[in-house]
Amino acid sequence: MIDIKNKVAFITGGSKGIGFGVAKILMAEDMKVVITSRSQKGAEEAAAELNTSKVGEAFGVASDVKSLDSQKQAVQKAIDKYGQIDLLLANAGVGHFASIEDLTEEQWNFWTQNGYVVIKNAISKEQAEQTAAFLWDFEEKNPKDPSTWYSAPRAEIQMKELAGTGMVEVYNNQHLWNNRQSQKVYDAFVDVWGTEKLWVTIDRANLNFPIKKGI
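The chain above was modelled as a monomer; its predicted structure follows.
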């Protein structure tokens, strides 16, 4: 059996629930545990309760798993306190947390804070132009003739809540499918959802025009 006495465990979301329970078990084996909570007060109160035990030691720090910087600061505090981390238990979560192998740290932080992310050059310029040409043709409008831009839609939009938003009701078209299969688009979805088992949903397309007075 591995000797874990005096080893250091870092437990995210360790101030309550499963994380707190695991911390108690590890401390019973004379381990030092660093527990995190979204608030410093919550982390310290939980650590104080754990430290009523006769063995082990608990140290509480604040950390927000939605922020990479906050996590880095919490890890540094743990190292400053104990000089090492031997075990990591990622108990806290924000829905779908994945390694940011393809998204940059800036993109990942933007995703967790805003709920969407912009991937530049996700598809080739040629693909983008082909898709745009298809949408213009589908809507029976001419990109070089502004007089066609504000004509009545070719058909009444079925999703009433999207009327006037620029939504183009076209689904399962090859151009949209080609865009979805772009490697950069696929990799971004893998990062965001934390799995390679992706289920393709309905694609959406928009054709928005400059706001015209009186329209």
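The helical segments are 17-28, 40-50, 68-82, 105-114, 125-138, 174-180, 183-193.
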